[in-house]
Amino acid sequence: MKAIYAARASMEDPISALEIGELDAPTVPEGWVRVRIKSASLNHHDLWSLKGVGLPADRLPMILGCDGAGIVDDGREVVLHAVINDPSWRGSETLDPKRSLLSEKFPGTLSEYVYVPAANLLPKPSYLSWDEAGSLSTAWLTAFSMLKKAALAPGEKVLIQGAGGGLSTALIVLAKAQGLSVWVTSRSAEKRDRALSIGADAVFESGERLPDRVDAVMESVGQATWQHSVRALRPGGTIVISGATSGDAPPAELTRIFFLQLRVLGSTMGSIEEFREMLELMEAKKIAPIIDSTYDFTEALTAFARMNDGELFGKVVIRFS
Ligand SMILES: NC(=O)c1ccc[n+]([C@@H]2O[C@H](COP(=O)([O-])OP(=O)(O)OC[C@H]3O[C@@H](n4cnc5c(N)ncnc54)[C@H](OP(=O)(O)O)[C@@H]3O)[C@@H](O)[C@H]2O)c1
Fold first, then answer.
1. Ligand 1 atom at shortest distance from the alpha carbon of 169
2. What helix, strand, coil percent values describe the chain, rounded to 5?
3. Measured at the alpha carbon of residue 257, what is the angle toward residues 251 and 259, in degrees to the nearest 5?
4. 293 lines ligand 1 (CB under 6 A)
5. Using a 6 Å cutoff on CB, does residue 245 contact ligand 1?
6. What's the pLDDT band for 66 if we cut at 50, 70, 90?
7. pTM of this structure
């Protein structure tokens, strides 16, 4: 089957580790189903995989991709949940120590066909296009789960670090839909303007001093913004962190964290129940994911380069059929 995969790892030049070609269909456990992918979208996770982060050499070649939507062999139109649990696990999916995401242990969605447990399917919302439905599984679900963890009330202020990424654009749109006051930082003036156009109430340069303290910060940039995030919070405020794109060694700000009694909450993906809740909210408000660009699968190198360059605003989508 046609596939976009990591053939090797390169920390310095992740795009050089990417190949497009034919791979054999995998052997999968009983109870898994085959989905013909219509559209799948990229996440920063795919770049980490090409860098060898979370994807050891003995699992290569590995088909990339955590997001996707397509058609099951029985004709159902579905979106895919990317969290794969150990069959013996009982309890919250994202706390399973043996969990993986599609493309970590099992082949991912950037392929003509993907195989997933039958329980990992949700009906595709009919008002969304294939490209939009294929953009929901990772960044959007993570954004929804991060906001849920912060448990903010309408009118409270949330600061989102970064504007242009798949996760950041999802956070902006979902936070606005929940009635929050949405403040956003970005390195780029153009992206700050675009953040305003999709619902941000105020925008700031990365690291800029804010006019007021916020109730919560959504953090995924890591080293470059961590200190700003901690300093932006009111006493008792909450940081929800799901990524460290720019690095993992910021000043810890321990004194400020204990003195102001801040809450720091880690967040990874979300449960299929949260995915269902998010789709209900999106359908009720007729929200669609922000798409940066769409490519045919033969143009995967260009699509990945766009994400690697950091110029994007929203999701980069790859179409298979
Ligand atoms: N834990 C999870 O389950 C989970 C799920 C989804 C994503 N993540 C993580 O979240 C991060 C974002 O993922 P994504 O797919 O949205 O990636 P992406 O589309 O590549 O977006 C990168 C984001 O980071 C911001 N950024 C990058 N470098 C920055 C810097 N030096 N200073 C300030 N901002 C910077 C960008 O903001 P501007 O360009 O606007 O400045 C942009 O919003 C990744 O680290 C990813 O691994 C984790």
1. 43
2. 30, 25, 40
3. 130
4. no
5. yes
6. very high
7. 0.97
